[in-house]
Amino acid sequence: MAYYRQLGDVPPKRHTQHHRPDGGLYYEELMGEEGFSSGSSLLYHAGVPSAVVDASPWDLADQSLAGNRPLLPRHIRLHDLTSPAWQDTDAVTGRRLVLGNADVRLQYVAAGAPSPLYRNAVGDECVYVESGSAVVETVFGVLTARQGDYIVMPRAVTHRWVPAGPGPLRLYVIEAASHISPPRRYLSRFGQLLEHAPYCERDLHGPAQLFRAEGEDVEVLVKHRGGPDGITGTRYVVPAHPFDVVGWDGCLYPYTFNIGDFMPITGKIHQPPPAHQVFEGVNFVVCNFVPRKVDYHPLAVPVPYYHSNVDSDEVMFYAGGDYEARKGSGIGQGSVSLHPGGHSHGPQPGAVEGSLGAELFDELAVMVDTFRPLALGEAGRAAEDPGYAWTWSGRGPAR
Ligand SMILES: [Fe+2]
Q1: What's the 367 CA to ligand 1 centre distance in angstroms?
Q2: What is the distance in angstroms between the CA of the first residue and the CA of the last residue of the chain?
Q3: Is residue 139 within 8 Å of 213, Cβ to Cβ?
Q4: How far is the CA of 275 from the centre of ligand 1 (A)?
Q5: What is the pTM of this model?
Q6: Which end of the chain is less packed: N or C, by CB atoms within 10 Å?
Q7: What is the Å distance from ligand 1's center to 314 Cα?
């Protein structure tokens, strides 16, 4: 993350003695990225942050991936994945894998129960809240998560999701194998968001207060690299509760950004997806499409032209409103579409004509474009609408 914050008590000089009221010392921990060469923060703990008393394997939910073959555009209805027992499902162990590759995994969960303590040591997470609300307790303090928020959780930050009800907390989880940040072209050479960026630092909300908890022999689930699917887990037991931080400062911390604070860039003619970009990771980008005025050329075609992004797989998550270009396709709230590289895609029949003269699009969607092909996870296979690929032609194979 780009800019400096401080919360709680830190000593005037880094790497110097920081005394507790009883005269003992707090334990300083540096969390830093790219081997002391990128963003970092210093945290001051009451206990020793590396202490562990037990470790055992944590078996993740099915992380297998099946290639997109035959190569087809796909439609997956995420709401079909809602467990009847969602009130007993948590936002960490209840995630189901929709699509993925070695760079990013897209998971979905409808949760109602508090999660275990958890950290993802594979990469950063960007969690989009489709609906519901939650408190996210972290070693850096408390975040509140509400509908439309992205929660950007840096790699290896210990945290816990506590849904605030009454309905399910619906989360679309972008799990990277890298870091997730604002696009580099939005940033000055010193890391400030520039004037042409569609959001600024005022829209990014870090923890506003610390969160302390007591406890002995506390479980922490860690997702990390390894195993046959490239990803696996370990369950630690730590001697004292990890939420023991009395202060921290630095440029690395979890934060939230609400999609409603994204100021869309519009134009006289159709603006391509990079105008809608919000974040990026290694080998993928995150864009969002928000309610906006559309193109004002008198002959403008507001919906997208057909396009073949030969280097990308394009995943759209339909989070609200009406998505103009997909009318007649069966896609609705909670749908995910996958439009793979090597296959041209664009508006459903009639959508181009139907959009002429439109002045406003009332759509809300989160798009992940990956530069390497995506495969289908078990949830993607379980909730697929098999008719989607044929909606442009109006007929499928005669079987
Ligand atoms: Fe597209």
Answers
A1: 9
A2: 53
A3: no
A4: 13
A5: 0.97
A6: C
A7: 6
Q: How would residue 281 be classed by pLDDT, with cut points 50, 70 and 90? A: very high
Whole-number Å distance, alpha carbon 71 to ligand 1 midpoint, is: 16
Here the tokens at position 334 are 């909670």
Q: How far is the CA of 181 from the centre of ligand 1 (A)?
A: 22
Which runs of consecutive H residues, i.e. helices, occur in the chain?
351-355, 378-382
Q: How far apart are CA 100 and CA 120, in angstroms?
A: 16
- 343 CA from centroid of ligand 1 (Å): 10
Ligand 1 centroid–CA 365 distance in Å is 12
Q: In this structure, are strands 74-77 and 96-100 parallel, antiparallel, or unpaired?
A: unpaired
User: Which of 365, 304, 369, 298 minimizes the C-alpha distance to 340?
Assistant: 369
| CA separation, residue 329 to residues 167, 325, 383, 390, 392 (Å) | 28, 9, 16, 9, 8
Q: What's the token pair of residue 25?
A: 């010392």
- Indicate if the pLDDT at residue 2 is higher than 80: no
Rg (CA), the chain: 22
CA distance readout (Å), 358 to 72, 154, 302, 325 = 30, 40, 7, 12
| Segment 246-267, tens digit of pLDDT | 999 999 999 999 999 999 999 9
What is the spatial distance between Cα 141 and Cα 209, in angstroms, rounded to a whole number? Answer: 5
- Cα–ligand 1 centroid distance for 222 (angstroms): 35
Amino acid letter, residue 168: P
Per DSSP, the three-state class of 226 is: coil
Ligand 1 center–CA 272 separation, angstroms: 9
Question: How far does the centroid of ligand 1 lie from the alpha carbon of residue 324, in Å?
Answer: 13
Q: How far is the CA of 68 from the centre of ligand 1 (A)?
A: 17
CA of 269 relative to ligand 1 center, distance in Å: 16
CA distance 163 to 135: 6
